Amino acid sequence: MQIFVTQDYGELSLRAAEVVAAQVRAKPASVLGLATGATPLGMYQELRRANNDVSYAQVTTFNLDEFVGLSAGHPGSYHHYMHLNFVRHVDIDPNNVHLPNGLASDLALECEMYEQSISQAGGIDLQVLGIGRNGHIGFNEPHGKFEAGTHVVKLDEASIDANLRFFASRAEVPQYAITIGIRTIMLAQRILLLASGADKAHIIAQAVRGPITPSVPASVLQLHRNVVVIVDRAANQQLTNSEGVQQCFTAYEL
Questions:
Q1: Which terminus of the chain is more exposed, N or C, with fewer CB under 10 A?
Q2: Active site (annotated) includes residue 161
């Protein structure tokens, strides 16, 4: 696990975009696992700026999750988030952009088909992750199973609170989501974990230096052979003097 510290969120976003762009340049037909939420927003903005330098024409993407019960056009859906912040701005084929169907009549079948689609695409080359304050990656909540594939999960109260900003009231926030499981995340060739802000400092320290435990789902990433963690100084507060942490960012090469 490589841990890099940036001065601020802006630099974190730039460096994260550089990692994604380097992956696509090295392998134009890359399969990218993408995340939503507040943390990757800046990364998508940087990727849009670099669009003339990177082609996504052969890229396939799989998003980590989607809320159960929301249509693709709902402003709180992750379909909407990805279209608004990334897909419409780059030259990616919309047929190669995949997110779970939150309105599927058979959710178990939807999970199975999504898992099969990832496998048929050859697996994920680079998986981008954020981290929740409770340590979740995707919507793999604390005390879930590390061996889980794509599945339906009941969201923790902390996850519902974190997504409240996308809805008019707490009652409107979905309580269930489809998420790629830990097993599938761990099968990715490379993983990029991003964290920004002082409110993520404690959980980042637990995830990358604490015991590997389902109570902190992101801690399982310590077992992966190729993980890059990029945090800003605020999120780095409890890792500052830890062994192995680099206090400046150096170019990440694939």
A1: C
A2: no
- Catalytic annotation on 136? yes
With 0.85 as the threshold, say if the pTM is over it: yes
Annotated catalytic residue, options 65, 110, 125, 232: 65
Choose the catalytic residue: 11, 89, 134, 224: 134
Domain hosting residue 29, numbered range: 2-246
Residue 251 lies in a domain: no
Whether residue 120 lies inside any domain: the answer is yes
- Residue 141 bears catalytic tag: yes
Count of structural domains, the chain: 1
Q: How does DSSP assign the chain, residue by residue?
A: -EEEEESSHHHHHHHHHHHHHHHHHH-TT-EEEE--SSTTHHHHHHHHHTGGG---TT-EEEESEEETT--TTSTTSHHHHHHHHTGGGS---GGGEE---TT-S-HHHHHHHHHHHHHHTT--SEEEE---TT--BTTB-TT--TT--SEEEEPPHHHHHHTGGGSSSGGGS-SEEEE--HHHHHTSSEEEEEE-SGGGHHHHHHHHHS--BTTBGGGGGGG-SSEEEEEETTTTTTTTT-TTEESS------
CATH of the domain at 233: 3.40.50.1360
- Check 18, 46, 110, 141 and give the catalytic one: 141
Is 51 among the catalytic positions? no
